[in-house]
Design brief:
By secondary structure, the chain is mainly alpha-helical. It has one domain. The chain has eleven helices and no strands. It has helices at 3-8, 16-31, 47-67, 70-83, 94-112, 118-126, 130-140, 146-158, 167-178, 188-205, 210-224. The two termini are 28 Å apart. It comes from Mucilaginibacter agri. This is DUF479 domain-containing protein.
Length: 228
Amino acid sequence: MNFLSHYYFDKEVTNCYHILGTVLPDLLKNADKTVIIHPEKLNHPDGRFQSLISGWRKHLDVDRYFHSAEFFKYHSHQLKLALLPALQGSPVKPFFLGHVASELILDNLLLTTGKVTIEGFYDHLNGCDNKVIYEFLMFSGMKNPDIFIRFFDEFKRSRYLGTYSETSQVAYALKRICMRIWQHPFSADQEALLTSIIADYRETMKPDFMSIFNLISNSLEAQYNRPD
C-alpha cells in the first residue's frame, strides 16, 4: 500500500511518531533504496522510539494482509492487462505497473472521497523532531541518516501527495516511480494513454474500494486482540 492508504488505518492516532513509523519503510526506500534496517526487531526505552517501532510494525502487518488479499491480486492483474496497450515498446514490466497503479488509485480514492485528508497526514509528519528521527535511524543501523533527513524535509515541503486527488497526477506519479528504475519509461503518447486507462479503471475500483480497507481493519483487530 502507498502512503495515504497506510495512514488510513491510524488516522485517529494522535502520536506523530507512530504515524511516521507507519510510512517510514516506504519513505526510506524513496530516500535511499540501498538502506536495509529492521527496527521491528528492536526495543528502546524512549517512548518516541517505541512509537516509531510500533508504527513500523503496523506497516509490515498492513502490507502483509494487503498483498495476500484477493482484492489486490485481482485488481493488480486486471490493471496489468488494461495497461498493456500503453506499454508497447516500453521497458516497464506490466506486473510492476499493475501493482503500483492499484496502490496509487487507492490513495486517490481515499482523498477524493474524504476518507483521509492531506492536512492531517502532513500535520503529523511536521510534528516530529528531526533530531529524534536521526537518532532513531542511527539506533536502527542506518549509516548516514542525513540522506533521509534531507529527503524528508523536501517530502514535507512539496506536499506532493496532495496531487493524488487529480487522476491525471496519478499517472504522473506512476511515471516518476518508474523513472527510479528505467530512465525513459514512457513516451508522451504512452503517458497520455496511461492517464486515460487509469481514469477509467479508477471508476471500476471506486464502488467497492473500501472493502480492502475493511478487510485489513478486521484482520488487524483480530491479530491485535488475539490472546497470547
